[in-house]
Amino acid sequence: MTDLSPRPQRTPSRRAREDRAYRLVVAGGAAGVVTVVSLVLAVIGILSFGIPVIAAIVTAVCVLLFRRTVSG
Questions:
Q1: Of 19, 53, 21, 60, whose CA–CA distance to 38 is shortest?
Q2: Burial category of 44 from C-beta neighbours within 10 Å (exposed 0-12, middle 13-18, buried 19 and up)
Q3: pLDDT of 1-57, one tens digit each?
Q4: Helix (H, G, I), strand (E, B), or coil: what is residue 5?
Q5: Is the pLDDT reported for residue 59 higher than 70?
Q6: Of the candidates 14, 29, 25, which has an alpha carbon nearest to the alpha carbon of residue 67?
Q7: CA-based max dimension of the chain
Q8: What is the pLDDT of residue 49?
Q9: Which region, left, alpha or beta, applies to residue 9 given φ > 0 means left and ψ of -120 to 50 means alpha?
Q10: How far separated are the first and last CA of the chain, in Å rounded?
Q11: DSSP code per residue over 6-72
Q12: Contact indicator for 62, 31 with CB cutoff of 8 Å
């Protein structure tokens, strides 16, 4: 018992989790809008289907990270 210093905190503070959740919601929402708009443009024939697929992947990652952030 020679080391009396407190253990480093492993979980982020509530404020840090709130900030991360907010940023994930904003990024996921923007990526969702890009997904829908670019998908409509791809169906019309103005864009290729690559951009909607990438935006959908980004949206899904943001949703998963958000769920992980708020569940802990």
A1: 53
A2: exposed
A3: 566 777 777 788 899 999 999 999 999 999 999 999 999 999 999 999 999 999 999
A4: coil
A5: yes
A6: 25
A7: 70
A8: 93
A9: beta
A10: 31
A11: PPPP-SPPHHHHHHHHHHHHHHHHHHHHHHHHHHHHHHHTSS-SHHHHHHHHHHHHHHHHHHHHHH-
A12: yes
Take residue 43 and report the two structure tokens written for it.
Answer: 């169906």
For residue 39, give the amino acid letter. L
**Tokens in use for 16?**
């840090």
Which amino acid, 20?
R
d(CA 20, CA 17): 5
